[in-house]
Design a protein that fits this description.
Number of helices: 10
Helix content: 25-40%
Oligomer: single chain
CATH architecture of the largest domain: Alpha-Beta Complex
Low-confidence stretches: none
Radius of gyration: 19 Å
CATH class of the largest domain: Alpha Beta
Strand content: 25-35%
Largest sheet: 7 strands, mixed
Shape: globular
Distance between the termini: 22 Å
CATH topology of the largest domain: Quinone Oxidoreductase, Chain A, domain 1
Order of helices and strands: EEEHEEEEEHHEHEHEHEHEHEHEHE
Number of strands: 16
Mean pLDDT: 95
Structural class: alpha/beta
Number of domains: 2
Length: 306
Amino acid sequence: MPSACVLTKYGPPSVLEWAEVAMPEPSKGEIRVKAMVSGVGPTDLKIRRGSLAAVYPLPDRAVLGFETAGVVDAVGDGVTGVAVGDEVAAQLMTLGGYGEFVVAKIWALKPKSVSWEDAGALPASVEAAVRVLRALKVSSGETLLLLGAGGSVGMIAAQLALRQGLHVIAAVGEHDEELVRELGATPVRYGSELLANVRKVADHVDATFDAAGKGGLEEAITLTDDRARVITLADERARDLGVAFSSWTPDGAPDAIAIGMELLANGELQLRSQRSLPMLEAAEAHRLLEEEGVREKLLLTTAAVG
């Protein structure tokens, strides 16, 4: 039987335990992936704590994880364009990434030139970045305020927006200023002076993408011409502030992983720096994020990754 880090109950990182699980079977339109690298994201921590129990009701001993990269192990009925043995990256909207095997409905082929680590770190972040930029209907010549531009989603969104010809104002902490400047964005400092800091470089912005949910949304609303063009991925005050909260939908950006893979293969996309841990140490990955505030994207690797 395969193994996975299962959620034994809601609570601290220690509730994640390595255990044997049933082999998942692909249904119609699904593939089964033998995982090589899976990503750990901030939503995983919220689910583990029980903060999103109403949004993500889970079965007993659920396996977390929204993204993985690995080798196709089986294909369900109706699947085309992929075969057993192909290398893929997948987004897992029914979770399962913390397991040695997982089924997926959304995937893209992994070019040989793309590392397993980059492939495992890509899916959820690139999907969110593409989805929100499309929802904002941004176009060349416009100015985009990007809150949290130094994070996994923010870095990708900044680069995609710049490729579309936008002027990107990147709200970051001091540690990420040089990073976003090198990407081509204009850094401004987060904090109590955000409004003044943005106005030093622009008198208004056409749209705002909040990729972090760590403050600044009220200032962004003041700066943005149209409140309808302010979208957050993570600020739970969105409804009270009268702005959109973007969540995954099947038709949001189903081509996003393929877009990201092509850019990675061509050396045209930079991802956040990464740190890898063995998959059985998922609890430690959660602890590092919660207690030590690590800045890298954390990845879980199986024994197959050398």
